[in-house]
Amino acid sequence: MPSGSSYRPGDVLRSMSGKTIEVLNTDAEGRILLSDALHYAKRYKPSLVVDVATLTGAAMVALGNKASAIFANDSELESNIRAWGEESGDYVWPLPLWEEYEADIKGTFGDWANVGKGKLAGAIAGAVFLKQFIGEHSWLHIDMAPRMTAAEGEHLAKGATGAPVRLLLKILERYT
Fold this sequence. Notes:
The protein is of the alpha/beta class. It has helices at 29-41, 57-63, 75-88, 102-105, 122-131, 165-174, and strands spanning 12-14, 20-22, 49-53, 68-72, 92-94, 112-113, 139-143. The protein has 6 helices and 7 strands. Helix 1 packs parallel to helix 5 (122-131).
């Protein structure tokens, strides 16, 4: 703990939305911050909310280092994002947000737990957690952890790839 006021496993935090978050893993702090950011974004009544994060190593396990994981609460948006990813060279692949996964992040002492209760479907658990804070707004979550650094054979310098900047530009150009 960096200080005595740091949160600890077992703490229950109240989010900006009023929902409570049970901290099961202090290494999953990014999704706690994103939960408030997503709730805050709704104040501006956007037509689309997009968040990009290196949220989970589980996305890397699922997809390797060739594509980012995407989660969308709209099937047409998901289809468009996949096509725009192909066009831009920032490949993405969708993973589900089925409500059956919500049971995995239901809190015991809070509304939601910040990680799934098991070791399976970690990328999905992270995205399903975030979904609880966006409501019905059109939303796209890009877990770009698999693309954060160049893959062998890509003819790129070692280090950050800039993914998914080209895809984000396509979204700005094409989303209506």
